[in-house]
Specification:
- This protein has 471 residues and is mainly beta.
- The chain has a domain of 209 residues.
- 4% of the residues lie in helices and 38% in strands.
- The chain has three helices and 44 strands.
- The strands form four sheets. It has a 14-stranded parallel sheet, with no helix packed on it. It has a 14-stranded parallel sheet with strand order 3-6-9-12-15-18-21-24-27-30-33-36-39-42, with no helix packed on it. It has a 14-stranded mixed sheet with strand order 4-7-10-13-16-19-22-25-28-31-34-37-40-41.
- The N and C termini lie far apart (51 Å).
Length: 471
């Protein structure tokens, strides 16, 4: 193992680079030395230094081996800063790590870019990176088997912040965790996405403990891939939707928050399960099912959906044509106000629970203006009782105030006398939003939070990131 040092302030390219006192100076020197680097080597840049745009992009052409990464990182205090210089890798077999580097205002392309046209990279790890103001995408990964993006912050990149992208060698087996992504100028915060010509992503993607906000389209965009899990994440204030799921199979969304956007969650793909989520204060729909082709196998279990106390449009759940075979159980579906929205749930264009093969039960509905006309299907509006009788369903559902602990301040735990206690069904959801085991007490609760709550609850994602929340 060798450690190479790069110090823009005091280094000299003619030195050995093998100690701090013999540090190199430029990124260009690192590039011309790529053939010297071996598995387990470290190339470390001086923290707090800035490499100007007059220097080179970091073009990685070396490769490690399985379990023996080559690491490009930092030493000293703070992050090294690449000003308008990109980091890219388009060759080799991979086994590369990037750690604790700042990539600022990358010109002419992606800030951090791993791609390969004729095969896969393996085991690409990006940790503690800061990437912003890239001319295209902030962090862009393609053609990789085994990736990790952890503890990274990415913002204000032109065509999106963090993208896992499809190709003829589909990216697979990866994790995006503990990342913060915000204010993408166009497109999305974090995305698992098909390629430009619809090339696929592969399978096994985990997105967890991430925060997205203020992005031009969606916070989280899962538009391709299979066996995708999104859990313990939060989106707020994204222009179109907090989350979108379309064109893929077997997606599980668990313990997530979608709030203060236009739509909370958009479903456009098959085999999507959303459970234990808090979906509230979105200006239009809480959940919209609007697929472009026929989809099925959609499950909504134990979610809490709440319309904001202002605004006059939208609904809590909207189901458009092409969606079928849905299960909607154990959800709280309500509005904070007595006037809007007019409907709590809508089946559009002649759709009904019956002709879409939708099974609904053990839900709690509430509207301060009463139940008349709050349910819409087959081009007609229904009260709660006629909704039950016309479609012979929801026998165990209720229309009642769920009695939250502090609804005004978005505390959606249940009071001790809530009608949602012990009135849910066993739908195979083994814990709740706070990771409390289900069931507690005499039965399963309706909604995202079981009662009583565990004393070892987790925190909402924005608290973990210490983000100042403005309503």
């Amino acid at each position: 193992m060798s450690i190479y040092y790069v110090d823009y302030s005091a280094g000299v390219d003619g030195q050995s680079g093998l100690s701090e006192g013999q540090a190199w100076k430029t990124i260009n020197k690192v590039n011309t030395s790529m053939g010297s680097f071996s598995p387990n080597d470290f190339i470390l840049f001086q923290g707090g230094d800035t490499w100007p745009n007059s220097d080179s992009d970091l073009a990685i052409t070396c490769q490690g081996t399985s379990g023996n990464q080559i690491t490009f990182g930092s030493y000293g205090s703070g992050r090294p800063r690449f000003a308008e210089n990109r980091i890219s890798c388009g060759s080799g077999n991979g086994y590369i790590s990037l750690d604790n580097i700042e990539v600022a205002s990358a010109a002419g392309g992606n800030g951090v870019d791993f791609y390969k046209s004729g095969g896969w990279h393996y085991d690409i790890f990006l940790t503690n990176m800061l990437v912003y103001d890239a001319a295209n995408v902030g962090i862009f990964l393609q053609s990789i088997d085994g990736y990790l993006i952890d503890g990274c912050e990415c913002y204000s990149c032109y065509n999106g912040n963090i993208y896992v992208y499809g190709s003829n060698y589909p990216i697979t087996n990866g994790t995006i965790s503990n990342c913060e992504s915000y204010n993408a100028t166009q497109n999305d915060g974090i995305s698992v996405h098909e390629g430009d010509s619809q090339e696929p992503c592969g399978s096994n993607h985990l997105i967890r403990d991430c925060l997205c906000y203020g992005n031009a389209e969606e916070g989280f965009d899962v538009s391709d891939g299979s066996e995708v899990t999104v859990q313990d994440c939060e989106a707020y204030g994204d222009a179109y939707a907090g989350y979108i799921f379309e064109g893929q199979n077997n997606v599980t969304v668990n313990r997530c928050i979608a709030r203060n956007g236009n739509h909370g969650m958009h479903i456009g793909g098959s085999n999507v399960t959303i459970q234990n989520c808090l979906i509230y204060d979105n200006g239009y729909n809480g959940i919209i099912m609007q697929p472009y082709t026929s989809v099925s196998g959609i499950n909504l279990y134990n979610n809490t959906l709440v319309h904001p106390d202002s605004g006059n449009s939208g609904t809590l759940i909207e189901i458009d044509p092409n969606a079928s075979s849905m299960n909607i159980k154990n959800n709280i579906i309500m509005t904070k106000q007595a006037t809007y929205p007019s409907r709590l749930i809508i089946f559009y264009s002649g759709l009904t629970p019956t002709n879409t093969g939708t099974v609904m039960d053990n839900n709690c509905y509430y509207h301060g203006g009463g139940d008349s006309g709050r349910f819409f299907a087959d081009d007609s509006a229904y009260s709660f009782s006629t909704w039950q009788s016309t479609f012979s369903h929801e026998a165990s559902s209720i229309f009642s105030d769920p009695k939250f602990v502090d609804q005004a301040n978005d505390n959606y735990r249940l009071q001790v006398d809530s009608p949602c206690k012990n009135t849910g069904a066993n739908v195979g959801v083994s814990d709740d939003f706070y990771k409390t085991v289900r069931p507690q007490g005499g039965g399963y609760e309706i909604g995202a939070v079981e009662f009583p709550e565990s004393v070892t609850q987790g925190k909402p994602v924005y608290e973990a990131f210490n983000v100042q929340v403005e309503e």
